[in-house]
Amino acid sequence: MERIPILKLGDLLLVTIQVDMHDRLALTLQDDLTTAIVAHGARGVLIDISALDVVDSFIGRVLGNIASMSRLLSAETMIVGMQPAVAITLVELGVTWRHVRTALNVEQGMRRLRASLDGPRA
Amino acid sequence: MTATPDTLPIHSEDDVVRVRHAVRRAAVELGFSLVDQTKLVTAASELARNTLIHGGGGEARVERLDTPRRGLRLVFEDRGPGIPDVERAFQDGFTTGGGLGLGLGGSRRLVNDFSVESTPGVLTRVTATKWK
Fold first, then answer.
1. Given A20, A85, A93, which is nearest B34 (Cβ)?
2. Local confidence pLDDT in tens for the 122 residues of chain A
3. What torsion do the CA atoms of B92, A23, A103, A97 make, to the nearest 10 degrees?
4. ipTM of this complex prediction, to 2 decimal places
5. List of domains in chain A
């Protein structure tokens, strides 16, 4: 079965989506990621969507769900690299994300994720 | 004058991806801006999924238009159960499929002209057009 690879980088998981996902593939990623968070005790998830030229309501919902599920499993999700045309289209489509943090690219996303994980704790 | 449309079957999730690619190709050929290409492809994806999930499969036609202006028309047809209450189906959040309920209303916002004709049990046709 086709799958999107999940890389482990310390306590972070890194996913780069490079294919035009059909719906089942997106749901497989959701399952694989939640399983991987628990298996590796990951505290952060970074998803690079810079290669996606379309995010429709289904893919948008799956990405939003991944962020919400990660949060329940005590991991922070950062979605990076959204193309401007995709951002415009998602808003007009009516997709709104809660619990989703975004950054412009992997480097910035990694830095922010790191900072919030290593930041001052109460 | 209108060129012969591409007709694509929609019977699987892979077909939905193929529809996205065909619409992207046509939108690029017609010289749509990147944002408009993205809106067209996204609308096509929503509508193709509706055809698959609610219509039980069907087909998509991708028509390049020359008159009155250049544009791209997407026609989705299925012979599934149909949409008994079209106005309600347009409302954001209304869903019978377990999704976000943004498919129909959302795709209407992404194009210029949008129409739904549905005779339940006979034919459902959704037409979306974006002008250049």
1. A85
2. 789 999 999 999 999 999 999 999 999 999 999 999 999 999 999 999 999 999 999 999 999 999 999 999 999 999 999 999 999 999 999 988 877 899 999 999 999 999 999 987 64
3. 20
4. 0.90
5. 6-116 (3.30.750.24)
